[in-house]
Amino acid sequence: MKQPDIIALCNQKGGVGKTTCALNIAAGLTLLGKKVLLVDFDPQAHLTYSLGIAAHDLKKTVYPVMKASLSLADALLEHSGMSVLPANMTLTEMENEQTMFSDHEFTLKNKLAGVRDKDYIIIDCPPSTGFLTVNALACSRDIFIPLQMEFLALKGMGRLMSRIEEVQKSFNKNLKISGIIATRFDSRKKLNNAIMESISERFGDKVFATVIRENIVVAEAPSFGQTIFEYAPKSHGAEDFLNLCEEIVKRK
């Protein structure tokens, strides 16, 4: 069986919709009949909590999998038709323990290497460019960068780009930025349109044609432990994420 496409959702700036995109892209791909593994690789565990899972109570998470004290199969949960590798705050220990691992930048890659029954692996990265993000990028083929349509959207991108180039050069020559996702977009706002024009000029066809419109239910869904398709299946948010997933599949 072929290897799944591994996609890292990455942005060092918090609050841009990274976790929301990771969750609903995985759910949307599942609705399109794809087999998906969703990996929470952020110690804040926002993705895990967004699925209604009490991350702080979990013992079987990505952390013991990374430490080889638990198998990947034993850590997986099933939720909304997806397989989920959850996280919690114990993952912060990885930053301190990284030198304990040989080829430590490839730890996650090695753990996912045996996955052959999925079409996609979606990784929700932490809002940083540290060890955990490097691990995620070292095993991914594609990077999706969610960008909120605000003045500070492009600020700090230089550091992220530098880190991506470092990983490409040292650990993963096949890694590429293949998707920029405009989030919380409101076409009535001049600033939103100006930012959209700016990122289109900078990234060209890497910018997805589908934008995630400003929609309150997208923000509400995680508080109910649901994807947008479960919480508000007829909303603009559900429409946008399904259209985005169809675009992702076509780009494959």
Characterise the protein shown here.
The chain is an alpha/beta fold and 252 residues long. It has a single domain (5-251), classed as P-loop containing nucleotide triphosphate hydrolases (Rossmann fold). Helices cover 40% and strands 15% of the residues. It has helices spanning 18-31, 46-50, 62-66, 72-75, 93-97, 107-112, 131-139, 157-170, 190-203, 216-220, 228-231, 236-251; strands spanning 5-9, 36-40, 77-79, 82-85, 120-124, 142-148, 176-183. Helix 1 packs across helix 12 (236-251). It is globular, with a radius of gyration of 17 Å. The two termini are 17 Å apart.
Describe this structure in a few short sentences.
Helices cover 40% and strands 15% of the residues. By secondary structure, the protein is α/β, with parallel strands linked by helices.
